[in-house]
Amino acid sequence: MALRNNKPIHKKILWICISLLIFAFGSITSFFVYFEQAYAHRAYPQVFIDSIAFGGKTQQEIETYWLRKNTTLSNVQFELRFENTIATISGTDLHLGYNATLSATQALLVGRSSHFTSNLRERYGNQPINLPPAFEWNEDALTNTIASVSAIINIPVENALFQFTKGKVISFKPSQEGRRVNEKQLRDLFGQLLIDAVKKNSNRVTLSIPVDTITPVVSTKQANSFGIREKISTGYSEFAGSIPGRIHNVALAAAKLNGVLIAPGETFSFNKTVGDISAATGYQSAYIIKDGRTVLGDGGGVCQVSTTLFRAALNAGLPIIERHAHSYRVHYYEEGGFKPGLDATVFDPSNDLKFINDTQAYILIQTKTDTNNLTLTFDLYGVSDGRKAEILNQTLSGITPPPPTLYQDDPTLSVGTIKQVDFDAWGAKASFEYRVTKNGERTIDQIFVSNYQPWQAVFLRGTKQ
Asked: Within 13 Å of residue 151, how many CA atoms lie on the same side as its CB?
């Protein structure tokens, strides 16, 4: 049998394959050339912004679309909140709008990066590429709003200070955690919630202001050896209308108590701690109650101090073992919204204010006399043991009017001169229940009663010719 030569057939098949490859290459090349020419200055087909298709759009067309939507953002209201601090700013104040140029630029950059493989995927893939809309606003307006709320919210951190000399704390400042608005996080949150609001077509955006806590380097516990860690109570009173001598005496007596330490188990005595109250120790003449009369005497106003400390001891839940009410209602002790019965008079040696430190730590007394606003504050520092103090069932009964005004002749005053030396006050019986509980059990259940006499106004009438 003769063999046939198949070379011509093989050559023919080879040329057909080559032709097909050339055709395919040419077709693919033509497609790519045509595709790139068609999208030379347009967004690639799979580009979306905020789920809106922009494939095939030019930069100008994309910009025009977003510029037309800008009017809708002026009605957006932003509310920044932290605890009781609230600040608002509107889209109009911010000059808020879509950043049309940036959105268009970002859309046209898709598939045109320096990364070859990502370009192929973004240009010719079938996976949509959805870009978020770009916004713009007046950065100064946002910065000013953040600055205003930060000024209210921010608290500087304070390291503890504790200096003890000759049985008394001469310098004390408790540590205090600071806080600061996280402005970077707030700005990021602003941008995120703005996008969400636009998607939901909402005109109100509420931002919870992020705040960082700053821990002091030196805590109160680290700064002292007395175990004092925290404020356990406050006492407060007002004395507006006091004469200069009384103001001086309040400040002087309060200063003598500032920095005093009360040891665990110690009974505190006001009279013993303050010491002699007389002109010899720096006190000035002011009105006091003596022998049933209101007269000028050394140390008038010291009872303002004992009253304020009494309130601090009550609020701390400490056992009160001696307290005396005034003979009559004194208006100073009912200022600031206090009901009658929360006063404590002192007069050495008969009347004292005494209470016991029944906690496991020292108690430090800190006083602050505000001579501009005429207020007095006592802060007690120690260690809280979970006790809860309450003042309950405050009552006022047996109210009686003051006696008629009394006029007395005074030969030392010129004729026609009238001088008031005592002031009227209504009589009453005031009472309240002092209850202290700890671990669910009552440790103190005491009734304080104050019997206030009706008091007569007294005027001196000059008879001197």
From this structure: 6
Extended strands (E) in 239-362 = 261-262, 267-269, 285-290, 293-298, 320-322, 354-356
Q: Bridge partners of 423?
A: none
What percent of the chain lies above the pLDDT cut of 90? 51
The predicted pLDDT at position 160 comes to: 79
Nearest alpha-carbon partner for 286 in 305, 345, 294, 274: 294
* Region label for 426, one of left (φ > 0), alpha (ψ between -120 and 50) or beta (otherwise): beta
Torsions phi, psi for 315 (to 5 deg): -65, -25
pLDDT band at 27 (very low <50, low <70, confident <90, very high): low
pTM of the model: 0.64
pLDDT tens for each residue of 261-286: 999 999 999 999 999 999 999 999 77
Q: Which residue has the tokens 């005053």?
A: 413
User: Which residue, 282, 234, 281, 274, is CA-closest to 256?
Assistant: 274
Q: Would you tell me how many other CB atoms lie within 10 Å of the CB of residue 215?
A: 9
